Amino acid sequence: MKHALLIALMLVAASGIVYGEPNATMTGGGDFSAAAVLWFAGTEVTAQVSGSISLTGELVVGETESAFKAKGSLSGAASGDSNTMIGSGWATFLARGTLATGEEISMRGAIDLSTDDIDLSSDTAGSGTGSLYVVLSLPDRTLRMRGSATGTAGGAFVPPDDPTTMQLDGKGSFTFTIASKDASSGEVPGEEEDSRASILSWDTQQWPDQLREQFTRVMQEESE
To answer: Whole-prediction pTM value?
Structure first.
């Protein structure tokens, strides 16, 4: 048993990869372009969303700071009430990019937002606040971070691929602040301002089933 443990430790040291949670923060913004397929049942609206995402910002790990940029794809779901204008949505994404130093990174994330200003009759579909969870893979370590996000989206109806549905093509942007568990002392930046920030807890097993299952697939896709 001792020999097996020693061999495992030697392999980790040789690989140079550290699966730790040092003090780390990430702030930035993202832009996305997506198609939403809509279904209506009275005033209730549900949607399946898919598209592309790009992210930029600053990463601080310990005392080291570096700009980053990444691009990838996203998919998710949303629902709301056209009368009350209250709704919520979530998406997962996988984005790859680089630090300013040239090192390659990948970001596997989940975002969950709520809104109280849905307006399908205008160019702006609404704004939302919520939480963001990211697994960031660096050349020498993997970090988990979570925090708050705020965004807006707008678009226009287009001829749907499925005539039994309606389709909305749109664009949006969001800003975020996330931190590792040590850096945030277990609290989500901005959580006191938005109760939905607690939905994406550190324990992914506590997430809503559909979101957790899709995020698991994103993690598996990255590892293949």
So the answer is: 0.81
